[in-house]
Amino acid sequence: MPKREDIKSILLIGSGPIVIGQACEFDYSGTQATKTLKELGYRVVLINSNPATIMTDPEFADKTYIEPITEDMIAKIIEIEKIDAVLPTMGGQTALNVATTMYDKGMLDGIEFLGAHPDAIKKGEDRHLFNECMIKIGMDLPKSAVAYNVEEAMEKAKEIGFPVISRASFTLAGGGSGVAYNMEEFKILAQEGIDASPVSEIEIMESMLGWKEYEMEVIRDNKDNCIIVCSIENFDPMGVHTGDSITVAPALTLTDKEYQNMRNASFDILREIGVDTGGSNVQFSICPKTGRMIVIEMNPRVSRSSALASKATGYPIAKVATLLAVGFTLDEIENDITGTTASFEPVIDYVVTKIPRFTFEKFPLANSTLSTGMKSVGEVMSMGRTFKESMQKALCSLETGLSGFEVMEGSLDFIKKEIRRPNESRMLYLMQGYREGLTNEELFDLCAIDPWFLDQFRTLYNTECEIIEAKDTILTNAELLRKVKTYGFSDVMIGQLTQKSEEEVYQARKALDVNLEYNEVDTCAAEFKALTPYLYSSTNVTKLPKVEEVKSDDKKVLIIGGGPNRIGQGIEFDYCCCHASFALNEIGVKTIMYNCNPETVSTDYDTSDILYFEPIDFEHVRSVIETEKPDGIIVHFGGQTPLKLANAIHEFGGKIIGTTAEVIDLAEDREKFSTFVEKAGLLQPDNGTAVTLDEALQIANRVTYPVLVRPSFVLGGRGMKIVYNDGELKQYMAEAVAVSNDAPVLVDKFLDRAIELDVDCISDGTDVYIGGIMQHIEEAGIHSGDSACSLPPISLSDALLKEVEDKTKTMALELGVIGLMNTQYAIHQGKIYLIEVNPRASRTVPFVSKATGIPMAKVATRVMWGESLKEALKAYDQDEKIVNVTTPSRENLLLPMLKGHVAVKEAVFPFNKLSGADLILGPEMKSTGEVMGISDDFGKAFAKAQDAAKNDLPSNGGKVFISLADLDKEFAPQIALGLENLGFDIVATGGTYTVISEAGIPCAKVDKVSEGRPNIVDSLMNEEIVMAINTSDGEETSKDDGLQIRRTVLRMNVPYVTTVAGALASVKAIEAKKDVNGLIPKSIQEFLL
């Protein structure tokens, strides 16, 4: 069937900010869907609140709304844009939930649903309806029952028998789910689940702990053609969320009969649920003792695993699902990778391993045991000829300092405990178990991981012993070295085991001709020629025959990506890498993308000319550079990951384009940099560099407390802290050395109450373009990635801004930056202090690009390739509506002409997924993603940003709780008065109450937790409080009162603010929300006209 002609305008709902359970894989699927629909001639309207996505670039959809994904906004957009149909299956749980609730309320009458009908979505998501459907088609289900309150849940749990699994309905990434072993644990878990579920429903299930878990990625068209794109097997047994488990594709331990049963069951389930078109994901569990197969769940949408399955097989699931949604059938669709029809089931002749990436180090109080609620923030994928090779390549990709199965310290009892406890390093402890002499059987009893996987680990352990035994001869033994490399041992690991350097191992391999060779991903196990070069490395058992190199005069550039998503380095850097590829493509330069993250647009088959799916470590990067011999290498766009390799790449002759390795090194090395800053005549907070505790104490007492301490060479403020006295500094120094491997610690005078600024600019060595100056809403001391910020600044004089522009220009030109540079300043008592400079892409580049209309990463790429800055800007602003290139008002300085709108970026945090974590922000970054609010004034833009970040500020009165730290108490009357004028009642604890009352503002006193009952926690639990404002100074954070209040706020889902500046901005936002017209959506294209 050809495409549907009865619909013209389609609304695509995005997934919003990056949160645990919903990362950039939905940018990948949304971008594919937008491009596909537009190519088919439909008018595409997009709503997504995340500015760091490729899909929200103004050129992708016809109208792009960077607005909160709320029912109200969507209804207004449908009316403005005269929408005919909505596609909610590409935006994860966010899109699905908002579309189904709107449908239930009758808000989508007359609007077509594409991809999956609401009835099908309900059957897939509602546990009760899903179970009914499964029974109807004879599927085996775990014993289970549904409950809507704790008493009912306890009755049902008793009937089923412990341990039980509790799952909340309509939640993302197993939110509100877990395993309980006794009634006491279950009570807490059931309450959490009922709170987390939008329909207050939980399902209590018999435990299948220790069972094997599988997923099927399925596609079905409207003629009932069904195919399995990929089978995926969990390395961890049941009890760990799939997103947190190591997974392997294809499934390796199923018998053919089991696989066929599972395949047929998947098709039956799709038919019964009613998913007529598009992709779905079905999860099964098999009892290893009896072979009993149970259906766990299905997602009637493109799921998180779909990106993994697409990249693993080279089958573009999101694109195919989009075509199916508008009427095509599988036999009418061409798979771009092979040129065959999309009705072929992929077959792969390699093994794919996914390992999740966690950031528990950012949340020391959080529980790091993995369970049925997801906790990982990103993932890596690797491909190898065998599981052994694939697994070890994945470990090297994680960016956690691993180069294989590192030795894990600890007593045998501790190692056994960590093998039994699902945790992020379990696979490393498993290998350590072999080193400690444990048998396969003993290990299986501890962890219930399938014996086949344990056998593979045993082989790796035996090979490790072989390497150690042959340590004096291995580097001249071609046969042994080749065998070891086919098992995926990295050069660094071989070096560690033989007491040689990585370079010695590399030179020995070269001499023996044991090299990495590249294989293509071609969907059908080489049955058809691949049309898109999509490659992974492997050391083959026998050397591949030499293929004549095709000579070409085409220029080509290698772009090194950012690796796994994690806190501090997320999708923003992937955005920059994609833009580099797009810009080079526009000027006829071939692009080679290099990355190991399956969730991203950068690793999509059509983003660049060639794609290498490899670990971002020196061994693998060097091999690709030797094979491809690129004319230029971009290391500045993937965050800290490729930057760390800049010196090594430069030293062996790789051609880094743009800012040189030397300049990068200067900006990262604090001592060299301080000298440079003094020479350039810029102010810096008084500081020093310490290697020992004594040095640190001397510096701290010289510059006076409070001081900001941090290790050098880290990203995302890792290990950064504000310290108030000698005792705290001693404790910090003991821990800090662990973070940056004995690199020196930097001690800076902390500028209290300073206003922080972020500036992104581009330089070509002659001219400098200031892309945007952003003012942080929160005062100094909160990491720039966690602070809300406003573009343009909201409270700075023109004279001060001019000074900032001039200082930035001076620095870019003096440093010799070619390309992007990010600078952070603090304005303290009217003086501008330089905080730090990064001569690379920063996480604010996408936000600035969207707010101003100049794609900064594209401009910077052209400049790095040799175009002048003025030429590059002109390419994206031919009429000079944004930048006055021809007659700049100041010499060598180009500025955007802002259009009168205000854009606010707000951070989004994972606290609700990491039980035990504290809400208080500091200099170490904790946010997983960001949203953007854009409007004609600051109040409305900030209100939109808060809505988008799900911090729903109240607008209809009620009680607001205020408790401020001593440093902040002077602001209490101003905040209280603002709220009182808006119709709110104020309640406050002790000191804050006194300050507000003395200012003559009505206020009720409420007890702290430590002062007796009823107290503030009781008021929160009784849902009497509509908003909480609770600040803390560094010294008071550890007190139980504040922590208990913040945890209750989180549990009760009360909008909260933890800084004074945030509270003042919230007052403006509530005022804007109370406006008669409310918040009006407006497309980014209209803002930028």
Explain how this protein is built.
The chain has 1089 residues and is of the alpha/beta class. Helices cover 36% and strands 19% of the residues. The chain is built from 37 helices and 39 strands. The strands form seven sheets. Strands 27, 28, 29, 30, 31, 32, 33 and 34 form an eight-stranded mixed beta sheet that branches. It has a seven-stranded antiparallel beta sheet with strand order 14-13-10-11-12-15-16, with helices on both faces. Strands 17-18-21-20-19-22 form a six-stranded mixed beta sheet, with helices on both faces. α1 packs across α10 and α19 (571-586) crosses α29 (856-865). It is globular, with a radius of gyration of 28 Å. The model has no long low-confidence stretch (mean pLDDT 89).
Reported for the largest beta sheet, the result is:
8 strands, mixed
- Helix-and-strand structural type: alpha/beta
- Give the CA-CA distance, first to last residue: 39 Å
Fraction of helical residues: 25-40%
Ranges where pLDDT stays below 50 over 5 or more residues in a row are none
The total of beta strands comes to 39
